[in-house]
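Reviewer 2 asked us to include a model.

Predict the structure of this chain.
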Amino acid sequence: MIRLLAVVFLSLFLSINSYASKFSAKLGDTVENEVSFGQDKFPLPSGKFLVAALKKWQDFRDVLLVQIDEDTGIIRWKIKLTATGNKSEKYSTWLPGQMCNLTTGYFLKVKKGSNKFACWLVESSDSEPKEIIRKATSNNYFSFGNTIYHKTKPNQGIDAKIKEFERQNNIKLPDMFVVSRHQYAKKARLYESEYYYNPEVDGKTHKEFLKDYISVSASLIDKFNNLNNVTGNLKLDASTYITQASINQKKDTKETNSENKGDLINQIKSLKELLDAGAITQDEFDKAKKKILN
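Predicted model (structure tokens):
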């Protein structure tokens, strides 16, 4: 009996301390659809992304994902994700950070409850990710006034690695991004995402694209809610903001050529059926076929 209890305790201890410790990919890997930190899952926009930087610090796990536009060499997406799943007593509750306490912004949704909150911001942004000040109730934090702050210096996070990656690889950055920032916390669990998109690849300025980007952002947050079983007001009604607005999703050249070829074959088959049925003459068939192929 004692041995059984010891095994159960060890299993619980390992699951608690590794909850967000392992990212689902390695540095340099290509990922698509979604990624995860242990049980914490984040959706990705369409296409393939490079895992450009990883950082483990204290109980946080940070990752940078990038997607480069092949035609221009300019960055299309830059995604920064953070998760912590430590459930130990020293991290009893996370408090809403700076973003959740804003009173202005292009688009802002905030829900706060007992030991939980969710914040969603859409705005224009320059190329530099904003350092987020994380707050929590814990003996390992220091207080300033009525606020408790995490004992973390900015350069302990992933931001320095992001700059290093961009410098070493000569990444071309736009003057401005549109960005969706999302924070979700429930007791000791904290999730953060920043989805930077370059609207220049759509031929638009960031101001023109902001309204459309709310829909794109809403789709990502709705997927996040479903992947992580977020319920109630913390879902931020994201699904209601999904419209027909979209971004320029370029298909693989081979895939596009294959689709075009299949479409031509179907059109010619339809013409042949009309010819066999006597609905058109051979001359009309030949002319229409030539027009399709040209």
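The longest strand covers residues 75-84. The mean pLDDT is 75. We have added this to the supplementary material.
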